[in-house]
Amino acid sequence: MNKSESKYYNTAVLMDQALLALLEKKDYDFITVKEICEKAGVNRSTFYLHYESIGDLLEESLTYVMEHMKSYFDADKRITKERIETCSLEELVLVTEEYLVPYLEFVKENQKIFRTAISQPSVLKVNDIFVKMSAEVFAPIMRRFGFTETEGKYRLAFYVNGIFSVVSEWVKSGCREDTQYIFEVMAKCMKR
């Protein structure tokens, strides 16, 4: 990485952090470019060098937050492709506590950005996160259960949209319920 790439990256991180800090204090719709620039310590022209709109920064900030989410998962407990392919069918479930609870804890701690993401779905394409999760986790499980590609596609749509809906409702209500409770609700809804 050369010096200019590093400076560009550092400036982007400053603006991500500024937006996230502002989201803790006020709603997305009331945040201005001027406030972001002041908080990040950059000029307006620097903001527009990196982004066309606050929505672009919001999308990048969500990506930044999601990268940070990986630290919430114990590497030994992560669902791996090998584990999905080799464990017994009795052990193979779509909603497991070991990967869903850390995700829910992360959402709860970062609920303001998630609330904003849910309220701005066209800007953030928030459903893409769940589509990626379905491709990496749910689709291989569906294949192991022997579902046809067509049936698996519809079942995945059901599961992914169900998880997204439960998380959305939970975030909209201020994540008042315990993460374990939300996990148990999802698990009951998705029994095999």
What's the short story on this structure?
The chain has 192 residues and is mostly helical.
Compute the average pLDDT: 80
Q: What share of residues is helical?
A: over 70%
End-to-end span in angstroms? 48 Å
What radius of gyration results from the CA coordinates?
19 Å
β-strand number = 0
Largest β-sheet summary: none
* Structural class label: mainly alpha
Explain what the structure shows:
There is one protein chain. This protein has helices at residues 3-23, 33-40, 44-50, 54-69, 81-86, 97-109, 111-119, 121-124, 127-144, 149-172, 179-189. The chain is elongated, with a radius of gyration of 19 Å. It contains eleven helices and no strands. The relative contact order is 0.10.
Overview features:
11 helices; single chain; 0% strand; mainly alpha; 192 residues
Q: Strands, helices and their partners?
A:
Layout: H1 3-23, H2 33-40, H3 44-50, H4 54-69, H5 81-86, H6 97-109, H7 111-119, H8 121-124, H9 127-144, H10 149-172, H11 179-189
Helix pairs in contact: 1-2, 1-4, 6-11, 9-10
